[in-house]
Design goal:
The structure is a single chain. The chain has 281 residues and is α+β, with helices and mostly antiparallel strands. The protein has 3 domains: 39 residues, no CATH class; 119 residues, Uridine Diphospho-n-acetylenolpyruvylglucosamine Reductase, domain 3, CATH 3.30.465; 103 residues, Enolase-like, domain 1 (2-Layer Sandwich). It contains 8 helices and 14 strands. The strands form 4 sheets. Strands 4-5-10-6-7 form a 5-stranded antiparallel sheet. Strands 11-12-13-14 form a 4-stranded antiparallel sheet, with helices on both faces. Strands 1-3-2 form a 3-stranded parallel sheet, with no helix packed on it. α2 runs antiparallel to α5 and α7 packs antiparallel against α8. The radius of gyration is 19 Å and the shape is globular. The N and C termini lie far apart (63 Å). It binds flavin-adenine dinucleotide. Flavin-adenine dinucleotide binds next to β2, α3, α4 and β10.
């Protein structure tokens, strides 16, 4: 869709170029969300793609994902040794049912900044306890846990003029075992609930509930919890919502079922590993 109130598109090459943001001028990433609806309040865009940030940087500490990294780029990233959580990358990328075009232009940062409850990059970032780096409009940098970044349905901690710069995943979480579940009302429909579980090497168990709640909810345990405890913690969540992609009570019910499936899957993995350790003794 043409944004015919937009009269300027500034290619950003230096951080100073972001000073143009504000008062009807917003960041442009892949444009898959921006160009999807009329936005008559907009007068200009600042294109982040021209920063040419490296999409994916593997370091000793983990992985840095540039906000401008596309779903297509992330989905093709090969696993490094020890990255047991690597399947979660593709699973989350594929949880966005856009076309070939959306897959190739939509960015990780654009997905987080759009903050739809069904934003699969939110699931990925929160499930792996990522840290996000925000370039604030006043020139300062701010880092925060990804779970705190999304504050509601299509709302985040970003203020006018701020830019999400990158997402950082640490080696410890990349080395965790993960399990993923999603459900939608139709085979190619937008997700109604998306859940990811993580079992760390030290036994910490984390379930991230998204899609059915207006913001990501993280449940964290020192070990794999009993079924009844997990069920009651899911039932205690109050952020379920209703829209065309599912009713709140349906989202709550299916999230309970999917969380239990994840608990069982990671529990089986854990038991299998313990048996293998005993066999090797
Ligand atoms: C057919 C179709 C299906 C879709 N399905 C889904 C879905 O299942 N789940 C889902 O979550 N989304 C979905 N979307 C919406 C959208 O495609 C994705 O959210 C996508 O990831 C947005 O990324 P983008 O790079 O295209 O963002 P853009 O469209 O470029 O930007 C989106 C918004 O984020 C802001 N923004 C972008 N990057 C940054 C940044 N680095 N810092 C600060 N602000 C920024 C922009 O100013 C704008 O307000 C769908 C869209 C289409 C057209």
């Amino acid at each position: 869709m043409d944004l015919n109130t937009v009269t300027s598109v500034i290619p950003a090459r230096h951080r100073d170029d972001l000073r143009a943001l504000g008062g009807g001028v917003v960041p442009l990433a892949g444009g898959s969300e921006l160009y999807a609806d009329p936005r008559i309040h907009l007068t200009g865009l600042v294109d982040l793609a021209t920063f040419d940030w490296p999409a994916l940087t593997v370091t000793d500490a983990g992985l840095e994902i540039a906000a401008t990294c596309t779903f297509a780029e992330l989905s093709r990233l090969p696993a490094e040794a020890g990255w047991t959580a690597h399947p979660l990358f593709y699973q989350c990328c594929a949880a966005l049912f856009g076309s070939f075009k959306v897959w190739n232009v939509a960015t990780v940062g654009g997905n987080l900044a759009t903050a739809l409850p069904a934003g699969p990059m939110i699931t990925l970032a929160v499930a792996l306890d990522a840290e996000v780096l925000i370039w604030r409009a006043d020139g300062s940098d701010e880092r925060m846990p990804a779970v705190a970044f999304v504050t509601g349905n299509m709302s985040t901690v970003l203020n006018e003029g701020d830019v999400l710069r990158s997402i950082h995943l640490r080696s410890a979480q990349l080395g965790a075992r993960t399990a993923f579940r999603k459900i939608a009302l139709s085979p190619l429909g937008r997700s109604g609930a998306v859940l990811a579980g993580r079992l760390d090497v030290d036994g910490t168990f984390v379930i991230t509930v998204t899609g059915g709640t207006i913001r990501p909810v993280q449940l964290r345990y020192a070990g794999i919890p009993p079924q009844t405890r997990l069920r009651s913690d899911i039932d205690a969540i109050t952020d379920w919502f209703t829209d065309a992609h599912g009713a709140a009570d349906w989202r709550q019910a299916v999230s309970g079922v999917l969380a239990e499936e994840i608990r069982q899957e990671l529990n089986e993995d854990e038991n299998q590993n313990e048996n293998e350790d005993e066999d090797n003794r």
